[in-house]
TrEMBL record, chain B:
GO terms for cellular component: plasma membrane. Its main location: membrane. It is found in: Cell membrane. The keyword DNA-binding does not apply. Keywords: Cell membrane, Membrane, Transmembrane, Transmembrane helix. The lineage of its organism: Bacteria, Pseudomonadati, Bacteroidota, Sphingobacteriia, Sphingobacteriales. The keyword Transmembrane helix applies. This is Multicomponent Na+:H+ antiporter subunit C. It comes from Parapedobacter luteus. Belongs to the CPA3 antiporters (TC 2.A.63) subunit C family. The chain crosses the membrane at residues 6-21, 28-49, 72-95. It comes from the Bacteria.
From TrEMBL, chain C:
Belongs to the CPA3 antiporters (TC 2.A.63) subunit E family. Coiled coil: none annotated. The chain crosses the membrane at residues 12-38. This is Multicomponent Na+:H+ antiporter subunit E. The keyword Transmembrane applies. It is a multi-pass membrane protein. The lineage of its organism: Bacteria, Pseudomonadati, Bacteroidota, Sphingobacteriia, Sphingobacteriales. One of its GO terms (cellular component) is plasma membrane.
UniProtKB/TrEMBL annotation, chain D:
Residues 127-416 form the NADH:quinone oxidoreductase/Mrp antiporter transmembrane domain. One of its GO terms (cellular component) is plasma membrane. This is Multicomponent Na+:H+ antiporter subunit D. The chain crosses the membrane at residues 6-25, 32-53, 73-95, 107-127, 133-151, 163-185, 205-228, 240-258, 270-292, 299-321, 327-347, 359-383, 403-423, 457-476. It is found in: Cell membrane; Membrane. The keyword Lipid metabolism does not apply.
From TrEMBL, chain G:
It is a multi-pass membrane protein. It is found in: Cell membrane. It holds the Pfam family MnhB. The keyword Endoplasmic reticulum does not apply. This is Multicomponent Na+:H+ antiporter subunit B. GO terms for cellular component: plasma membrane. The chain crosses the membrane at residues 12-30, 36-55, 67-87, 107-132. Keywords: Cell membrane, Membrane, Transmembrane, Transmembrane helix. It comes from the Bacteria. It comes from Parapedobacter luteus. Belongs to the CPA3 antiporters (TC 2.A.63) subunit B family. Residues 5-127 form the Na+/H+ antiporter MnhB subunit-related protein domain.
Length: 90, 118, 158, 507, 130, 769, 137
């Protein structure tokens, strides 16, 4: 078994399952902050998915995408905090 | 995979349309965003999809040595994404103005009677 | 100390240039060789800190890794087993760290180790509020952090 | 013929806008730059039109990539005429805006956006690439959103929301259509598309793709039952803006319909019939709306819808005569619709309202102005021999030729309604004495306090456009020749394709 | 050989991420979910990136990027967690019933959201704010 | 000849700058125009009576076949002379009549315009040219009728007049275009040549319908006649001009002109006879109940028009000759009576026939004129009217079958009423005792009393010496109608025959009626009880219903609810696409080529669909935002899997920014309210799902179609070699298709400026526009 | 939003993100990236800064109003597009230096165009976001 198939048939499915689990949390909530952190986790998992995908396809190009995701993902979380905090203070 | 994506395409359009038909302006905007995603996916699919072969020539090469994904739909979608961002940004701010004006985002309230025309 | 660090970097780059192999492992090797040379050549007692700090940093890093893996396993166990063993609580932790940078680094480190999470820093920057997953005893926990991360960290920074 | 300068009418507006952005909040400079830019644009457009009229189709391959690989710009008679008319409208509105638009709006970018809009219009007319056309459409709609909401009062914002929602929806249909078009042909160049679509065996796909364009452009050109945004919004923005909207914005949809459905898709029987039916309903809907409204601009808005039907009907009949009629109507309509909204604006300046019941006495007070306005209004009606008359001859003839009696009847109804509402408007606004304001406060006369120069800035554009309208009416032969030429080119697209793709490809 | 190393790193990383995912699903309250996910995910992501760095040894830029991403995740994840965590506290997100202590209770100024250090106060026993 | 026609236009334009100089005493100078034109047309009499035809050609819009083609024959000449002749008198008359009126210059401008338009109508050889002038008469009469524009009734009348004549005009235009289209030329003379083809064409009926619609509305035929009495709101000189010689005669002229093209068939004859007959009887009857002088004249005019239509319908040489005679007769006496009425109105301030009496004592020349005109209209022997009436009876008697009896009876009854009306208008005001209040009235200026007198005298002159006009004018006119030479001298005396008997009967009964019946308000009241049945009322009811329908239609369609608009658009799109999809041809149900599936891709698609579901169903704004960004991230992953890193990056960054934007804006928005009821939601779901399903199917069709990837290959092959870049997408964006990118950043810039001004700009209250 | 930790973090994230954005911009012609994404990342850097320090502080940091960047960027893009016209080529024809530069590779008008795009995107995004946040405050 090559690394590529290992990733395709083991690692990526694991990550896929992880994505689905997180999605369940987004559905369940119950509060908005739960959804926000789930979203954040989703993106982090996305970084992982893209990384291993680039190994599987042997295209380092995709790492660039992962880098962008990692760099700015937290901005969303910060924006939500900003908003919720402001709303809470109102 | 195409079948799955083409179903996703239908779902995106259907959801977009459904959201367009709501009374809330926020939902309207979301609907437009969904439709925009749908249109992008349509372009993406229509051009044919190729897994894991980005249209980037290897550092060492001057030409593609392998097959590669069609770059045109990507360029088109990129343009479309950026354009929709501009429109969305404006639309979202318009939503803000609407809210300031009528104190709600209920689209049914957007009817100044004709008598108030200048 | 900055001077020595820069010197070390220069040596590492020179090594890379000399060998003509542009890769990380080669750079790291060059850095290590440079560090060794500088350490050997250093006879100035007052300027000794650079050579103690580098091992300390490595030590801290290993400690952090150890803590992280240990705690991760602990949490993983708790997550995948049906029963919860947690005793969560929010603890007020009086810091020794003063500067923004110190506070920041400390909180990053604490947050990244499983089981603890910084919720906030007080306005006067005296205390951290830490969410703890396995809180048995408050004072013991505070002491553990103080002796563990905070001391090691401040040693490196100050 | 390759002509790298054909893009100049686009560029000049782009430059004008950028220069004005550097003069942010310097309104005097902006006004001067705007009028200068519009003048230059008019000269360039005239030059382009003459060149194309005399020497045939001109093309420009952006960045020197041969079609179909790069983006092609094409100036044929159709597009260069549209550019020319746009430049007339643009100049008029530009001059009018110098006094007609509130200073507050100028401080917040009215002029640059206006020029971006004109740039977008010219770009759309000149583009020979379907996706590039989409980009131009987006430039146009975003600019129109901004102009519509600029300094927005409640009604304006409300109108803008509806306008925006439906126009973005239209863009989505357009974009989807482009995606499919690429997916079945692999090209975006319109001339190339023409060849590839003609050669495609799966006609069902072609028809489906065409439907997306019908819906997208149908919304943009306010065709029944897709027109709702227009009467919801066109009565709200400042008159100068409404003038550009009324004169040009829906027409760019019509332009696109004509371009795409003569060059790329040729309507089959079903589509032709559908277009005719839609045209009939469009006319009737516009008619019903126009006869019951009391605000000048609301009336005009519905008249726009009504008259869109005329042009759509011409496309539906698809004979050379019908296309000639529709095109002639298009040319007339651009000039007149721009002008009537300017007139509405001027009336508002004079009387502070656009409600016909509250207006009056203009005929007594401003006889000459009334005369000019009457000329324009009756041109709109199509009183012979004014401009609106000539196209109807072609349309009637085409209708009879094609056996489209219902369409002819609808055009008669639409024309009659136009006559009726304009006559009513004339009686109420010009003849009737100015009624006393019920609550004792007479609306401000914003015209009288102006100095003569600024007054002339409001009046000159109206006269200018009226003169062009008069020319279209009295020198109908020349204009009809242009329309005929275009109609001929629409039926025989090989010159266009040869100009773009070179002489060796024939359809 | 290197493949086995990479495979191992990948596996650990993926499992860590899976645990984070299970954690966010299973944990009984927001703070616990936050606590679990931040590090597990960072650890997992970091390991996966590390394996990429090993996989493309001849491409310096990939290694650089991988390191940069790890660095970034490490820097930003705690910050984001801290912000959303305190926000959750402001808006009164419920704590698990098993929570045994809450030093934060009553420390925030309701109006300004200023957080006191509470030096003058005694330890207060936790009570879920609702 | 072009100049002759255009002179009026030129003069009316010259009134704009110079009009103010002609407002005062010099106003009468305006009459120079019609007088010289009259002289000009008189000069053609010899030639035309010799059977010559004068033509003129000047290209205008040759591509449409519309040129300045003028054609002067007997018919045109008769009308031209009437137009310019009576025009001259009216121009002269108006100067004192409207002395000091602030819009006197505009009046003359309109009048000149109108006269020119009328000349154009009668001289044009090209039907479309004719139509152009035809519409100009409608428009200029609109301005003339509404001349007293501060009067609401006046405005309303002019609107109604324009509405009726303009509406008919558009139908006429269609008819004329159809004629031209079928016969291949718009020239009337050419159409005369091809008249058999036209008459036998399937669309002949339609042509007639459309042409009649134009003619009937213009010539005030039942049931479109009602605009004409209303048009009496115009100043009297205008009424005199419009209703005696010009405007209303245009319809008659058109029928006469087109007789050789379309006439002579049953489809032509019967409608004209019926409508003309109804019109003449109906309005003659109505005229006797009027008490307003102008009202009487209006209805009698309509009746006269009915007679003319009737005669043209009969279409025998006699009837056509009768028509031409009657045109002239009627013009003369009716113009005279109108002008007299004008003076009376001007001097006494009333036109109420019950108030007027004995005016002969103060307005003697007018009394003479009135008497003569009344006699002429009554058709007393030795008046021109007598000849006219004779010819009418002659014509009705010479029809076929049972028609003579019916038609003649109709004509007799009509003439009795008309006679009564003529006497009422011409005689009644001058006979009897002069009321005290009118004692101090003086004869107005010569220009006001001479024209009516002259016209009345002419009526007598032509009657006494019919030879003046018959060969020179009337025979040529009739011959132009039937398109062959006629030479029937008009005779004063036909001998004792049935016609004479009928004339006598008419006279006797008419005179009897005049002596027996006094006009009174009660009569008017009586007839007005039938108003509900009158065409005017019926049409105004109809208009009312149409208006109501329009209101309901517009309100229903344009109900202000954006979601309803969008729903309609979507339903339309769905139907269109569904039709295209399912009509004919086979549908693919699976994509033509499938790339293999993998678990994680399924997971991503599942996530996308679930997030879409959450977006649609969630009731919390923030959840919706979160879900929407999940969709964005899902798309981003798809883009990664399918080789679009640039897209993934852009999608992700933009998605993040959109979230930030939403979050900044949602601040303070209230929670969603679930407004829609269950039914609406289900409906929307069905619509949306159908649309989505169709899109899916379309997607599948597209995936089954392969395409030529030459362009894409070109980019791949040349990205580095020619454009010096290795990221082909980027190369496309900044080079191959750089224009797109340039203008896409323009879009962004505009959006930014828009946002800036949308939020910052607050207009001052004074800055409305 | 007041947070010591975020405050500190954002002050070192800002330069890192900006550096990164320039990196993405310059390599666009050879690798994924380019003016758009670069510009977006740069704006995100400033947005992040504004979240903690407040919009006014960020504006002070920028020294000019971001709106000014719009005409500047547009001008640059348009000029790079128009430079070829001056030597008689069609609009947008690529002009190139003959020798490649390190890191960036060949430098041509396309790069200046991309820089124009970058500047415009920064100007646009910041104008939009700052306007909104000032409006809400
Ligand atoms: Na921890
Ligand atoms: Na790029």
């Amino acid at each position: 078994m090559t690394l590529s198939t290992y990733i395709d048939y083991v690692i990526l499915p694991i990550l896929g399952v992880a994505l689905l689990l997180v999605l369940v949390r987004i559905f369940k909530g119950p509060t908005i902050v739960d959804r926000v952190i789930a979203l954040d986790l989703l993106i982090t998992i996305g970084v992982g998915v893209i990384t291993v995908f680039s190994i599987s396809t042997q295209k380092s190009t995709f790492i660039d995408v992962a880098m962008i995701l990692a760099l700015i993902a937290f901005l969303g979380t910060i924006a939500f905090s900003y908003y919720l905090e402001k709303r809470g203070r109102k | 995979m195409e079948l799955l994506l083409v179903i996703l395409l239908g779902v995106l359009y259907a959801a977009g349309i459904f959201m367009l038909l709501r009374r809330s302006m926020v939902k309207l905007l979301i609907g437009l965003i969904l439709l925009g995603n749908g249109a992008n996916l349509m372009i993406f699919l229509a051009g044919g999809i190729t897994r894991g072969k980005p249209p980037v020539i290897d550092d060492a090469a001057k030409l593609f040595t392998d097959i590669y994904a069609d770059p045109i739909p990507q360029a088109l979608i990129l343009t479309a994404i950026v354009i929709s961002f501009g429109l969305q940004a404006f639309a979202i701010v318009l939503l803000k103005r609407v809210y300031v004006l009528i104190n709600s985002d209920d689209l049914d309230d957007l009817n100044t009677p004709e008598e108030e025309d200048i | 100390m900055v001077k020595q660090f820069l010197m070390n970097l220069l040596l590492a780059f020179t090594w890379v240039a000399l060998t003509g192999v542009l890769s990380y492992s080669n750079f790291l090797f060059g850095f290590a060789v440079g560090f060794l040379l500088l350490w050997l050549m250093n006879r100035n007692e007052s300027d000794h800190r650079y050579f103690t700090r580098v091992p300390k940093i490595i030590g801290f890093f290993l400690y952090f890794l150890y803590e992280m893996i240990r705690a991760n396993i602990q949490v993983a166990y708790d997550v995948i087993t049906p029963k919860f063993f947690m005793k969560p609580g929010i603890v007020k932790y009086p810091m020794n760290a003063k500067s923004d940078f110190e506070i920041n680094l400390l909180s990053t480190v604490i947050s990244l180790t499983p089981g603890t999470l910084i919720l906030d820093v007080s306005e006067d920057r005296k205390v951290l509020y830490i969410h703890v997953m396995y809180l048995r005893d408050k004072d013991q926990f505070i002491q553990q952090i103080k002796d563990g991360f905070e001391r090691r960290l401040l040693e490196i920074i100050r | 013929m390759i002509d790298n300068t054909l893009i100049f009418p686009v560029i000049v507006h782009l430059f004008t806008a950028i220069v004005q952005l550097f003069f942010w909040r310097k309104t005097v400079a902006q006004r001067i730059v705007s009028i200068t830019g519009s003048l230059i644009a008019m000269l360039l457009a005239t030059r382009l039109f003459t060149a194309v009229w005399n020497d045939g189709i001109r093309t420009m391959q952006a960045a020197g990539w041969d079609a179909p690989f790069g983006i092609t710009f094409v100036a044929d008679v159709f597009s260069s005429t549209m550019v020319l008319l746009t430049s007339f409208s643009g100049l008029a509105v530009s001059i009018y805006s110098a006094t007609g638009v509130a200073r507050g709006r100028m401080l917040y970018g009215y002029f640059p956006i206006f020029h971006f809009l004109l740039m977008g219009l010219n770009g759309a007319f000149l583009s020979g690439d379907i996706f590039n056309l989409y980009v131009w459409f987006e430039v146009i709609i975003i600019a129109s959103f901004v102009l519509m909401t600029l300094g927005g009062r409640k009604a304006q914002i409300e109108g803008a929301v509806k306008y925006m929602a439906m126009n973005i929806l239209a863009s989505t249909f357009f974009l989807t259509g482009i995606g499919i078009l690429y997916g079945i042909t692999g090209t975006l160049n319109m001339a190339d598309l023409s060849l590839k679509i003609a050669a495609l065996e799966n006609r069902k796909l072609v028809d489906l793709t065409a439907s997306f364009f019908i819906i997208g452009f149908g919304i943009k050109s306010a065709v029944f039952p897709l027109y709702f945004w227009l009467p919801s919004s066109y009565h709200t923005p400042p008159s100068a803006v409404a003038a550009v909207f009324g004169g040009l914005l829906t027409k760019v949809g019509i332009y696109a319909l004509f371009r795409v459905f003569t060059l790329i898709f040729i309507p089959d029987d079903f589509l032709a019939t559908l277009l005719v039916i839609l045209a009939i309903f469009t006319i009737l809907t516009g008619t019903f709306g126009a006869v019951i409204k009391n605000n000048i601009r609301r009336v005009f808005s519905y008249l726009i819808v009504c008259h869109i039907g005329f042009m759509l009907g011409g496309l539906g009949m698809y004979s050379e005569i019908a296309l000639t009629g529709a095109l002639l109507y298009l040319f007339h309509d651009i000039m007149v619709k721009t002008n009537i909204f300017l007139i509405a604006g001027l009336i508002r300046k004079l009387r502070g309202t656009m409600n016909m019941d509250k207006l009056g006495g203009l005929y007594a007070e401003y006889p000459l102005l009334s005369l000019v306005m009457a000329l324009v209004l009756f041109s709109l009606v199509g009183v012979p021999p004014l401009s609106g008359f000539w196209p109807k001859i072609y349309l009637f003839e085409a209708g009879f030729m094609d056996g489209q009696y219902a369409l002819v009847a609808a055009i008669i109804v639409g024309s009659f309604a136009t006559l009726y509402v304009i006559a009513k408007l004339w009686a109420k606004v010009f003849w009737k004495d100015q009624p006393d304001a019920p609550d004792g406060e007479t609306p401000a006369d914003e015209f009288k306090p102006l100095n003569p120069f600024r007054k002339s800035l409001l009046v000159v554009p109206i006269v200018f456009l009226a003169a062009i309208t008069l020319y279209i009416g009295l020198a109908a032969e020349n204009v009809a020749a242009v329309a005929k030429h275009i109609a001929h080119e629409m039926k025989d697209i090989s010159p266009y394709i040869e100009a773009v793709l070179g002489p060796n490809v024939s359809p | 050989m290197i493949d086995i190393l990479i495979g191992t790193l990948c596996t650990i990383g993926a499992v860590a991420i899976l645990i984070a995912a299970i954690g966010i699903l299973r944990m009984p309250d927001f703070y616990l979910r936050l606590s679990v996910t931040v590090k597990a995910a960072t650890l997992g992501g970091g390991l996966l990136l590390l394996s990429a760095a090993f996989y493309f040894p001849e491409e310096v830029s990939v290694t650089t990027k991988a390191v940069a991403i790890i660095f970034f995740l490490t820097l930003t994840a705690p910050v984001a967690a801290h912000l959303i965590g305190r926000t959750a506290y402001f808006i009164g997100t419920e704590k698990w019933k098993g929570t045994i202590r809450d030093d934060l209770a009553g420390m925030y100024d309701k109006e300004t959201h200023q957080l006191g250090s509470g030096d003058n106060e005694g330890d207060n026993i936790s009570h879920p704010s609702s | 000849m072009l100049f002759a026609v255009l002179a009026g236009f030129i003069v009316s334009i010259l009134y704009i700058p110079f009009g103010r100089f002609l407002k005062g005493k010099l106003a009468g100078l305006a009459a120079l125009l019609p007088i010289s034109l009259f002289a000009y047309f008189v000069s053609f009499i010899p030639a035309v009576s010799d059977g010559q035809r004068v033509t003129f050609h000047q290209p205008w819009v040759p591509s449409l076949g519309i040129n300045f083609d003028f054609h002067l024959d007997g018919l045109s000449l008769l009308f031209s002379l009437l137009i310019t002749g009576i025009g001259s008198l009216v121009f002269l008359y108006a100067a004192p009549y409207l002395r000091g009126h602030r819009y006197l210059d505009r009046f003359y401008a309109y009048l000149s315009l109108f006269m020119a338009a009328m000349l154009g109508v009668v001289l044009a050889d090209n039907v479309l040219l004719l139509f152009i002038f035809w519409e100009l008469t409608s428009i200029s009469s609109f301005f003339l009728i509404g001349f007293n524009n501060d009067n609401a009734a006046s405005r309303k009348s002019s609107l109604i007049a324009l509405g009726v004549t303009g509406g008919g005009g558009f139908l006429l235009m269609a008819g004329l275009v159809l004629m031209g289209h079928l016969s291949g030329s718009y020239s009337i003379q050419a159409m005369v040549e091809t008249n058999e083809y036209l008459k036998n064409h399937v669309l002949y009926g339609l042509i007639l319908l459309l042409v009649f619609a134009g003619a009937f509305t213009k010539s005030a035929q039942f049931p479109f006649h009602f605009w004409l009495p209303g048009a009496m709101k115009a100043p009297t000189p205008i009424s005199a001009y419009l209703h005696s010689a010009t405007m209303v005669k245009a319809g008659v002229y058109l029928l006469a002109r087109l007789y050789p093209v379309l006439g002579g068939t049953d489809y032509w004859t019967y409608p004209l006879i019926i409508i003309g007959g109804i019109t003449m009887l109906y309005s003659a009857f109505h005229s006797i109940f009027r008490t307003d002088l102008k009202g009487i004249l209006a209805y009698s005019t309509i009746s006269a028009l009915g007679i003319l239509v009737f005669l043209i319908g009969i279409g025998t040489p006699q009837s056509l000759l009768a028509a031409s005679v009657f045109i002239l007769v009627h013009a003369l006496y009716k113009a005279s009576l109108f002008l007299i009425t004008g003076v009376i109105d001007h001097e006494t301030g009333t036109r109420d026939i019950t108030q007027l009496a004995g005016l002969r004592k103060v307005l003697f020349p007018l009394a003479i004129a009135g008497l003569l005109a009344a006699l002429s209209s009554a058709g007393l022997p030795f008046t021109f009217g007598f000849i006219g009436k004779d010819l009418v009876y002659e014509a009705t008697l010479h029809t076929d079958g049972v028609m003579p009896i019916i038609l003649t009876a109709l004509a007799v009854v009509t003439n009795i009423f008309l006679l009564y009306a003529g006497l009422l208008a011409g005689l009644k005001p001058f006979t009897g005792q002069l009321p005290d209040r009118y004692q101090r009235i003086h004869l107005p200026s010569l220009l006001m009393w001479a024209p009516p007198l002259l016209l009345a005298l002419l009526g007598i002159a032509f009657g006494a010496f019919p030879a003046i006009a018959d060969a020179s004018l009337l025979n040529p006119a009739a011959s132009a109608m039937i398109n062959k030479p006629i030479d029937t001298p008009l005779k004063i005396w036909h001998g004792f025959n049935l016609v004479l008997l009928l004339s006598g009967l008419t006279l006797a009964l008419g005179a009897f009626l005049y002596l027996m019946r006094k006009p009174s308000a009660s009569g008017l009241d009586w007839i007005e009880r039938f108003n509900n049945l009158s065409p005017k009322h019926v049409i105004s009811q109809l208009t009312h219903y149409v208006r109501h329908f329009a209101i309901r239609y517009t309100r229903t369609l344009h109900n202000g609810l954006l979601r309803v608009y969008l729903l309609r658009i979507v339903v339309f799109a769905t139907l269109l696409l569904a039709f295209r999809l399912f009509a004919g041809g086979n549908i693919y149900l699976l994509p033509g080529y499938l790339t293999p599936l993998s678990v994680y891709e399924i997971a991503v698609v599942c996530i996308l669909i679930a997030a879409i579901y959450l977006t649609v169903t969630s009731s919390s704004r923030l959840t919706v935002v979160v879900a929407t960004s999940v969709i964005g991230y899902g798309m981003c992953l798809l883009f990664v899997f399918y080789s679009a890193p640039d897209l993934a990056m852009t999608q992700f960054t933009i998605d993040t920014l959109t979230v930030v934007l939403f979050v900044l804006v949602l601040f303070r928005l209230p929670p969603f309210l679930n407004f829609a009821n269950r039914g609406a939601r289900i409906r929307d779901w069905v619509v949306a799902a159908t649309f989505g399903a169709i899109i899916t199917l379309i997607g599948i069709q597209v995936l089954n179609q392969s395409f030529d990837d030459a362009v894409s290959k070109f980019y791949g092959d040349n990205a580095y070699i020619l454009a010096k870049g290795k990221n082909v997408v980027n190369v496309i964006l900044v080079d191959f298709r750089g224009m797109d990118t340039l203008f896409e950043i323009v879009v962004l810039s505009i959006a930014a400026i828009g946002v800036f001004s949308l939020l910052k700009l607050k207009l001052k209250a004074s800055e409305k526009e | 939003m007041k947070s010591t930790i975020l405050n500190t973090a954002s002050s070192y994230l800002l330069p890192i993100l900006l550096l990164f954005s320039i990196f993405i911009l310059l390599r666009g012609h050879y690798h994924p990236g380019g003016g758009f994404v670069g510009g977006l990342i740069a704006s995100i850097a400033f947005v992040l800064h504004s979240f903690t320090h407040g919009t006014d502080d960020t504006l002070k940091l920028l020294r000019i109003h971001p709106g000014v960047l719009i005409p500047v960027g547009l001008g640059l893009a348009v000029l790079s597009m128009f430079a070829p016209v001056l030597i008689g080529d069609p609009v947008m024809t690529g002009l190139w230096f003959d020798e490649p530069f390190p890191v960036i590779g060949l430098i041509g008008s396309a790069l200046f165009f991309d820089i124009g795009v970058y500047i415009v995107v920064v100007g646009v995004v910041l104008t939009i976001l700052f306007t909104i946040s000032q409006y809400s405050e």
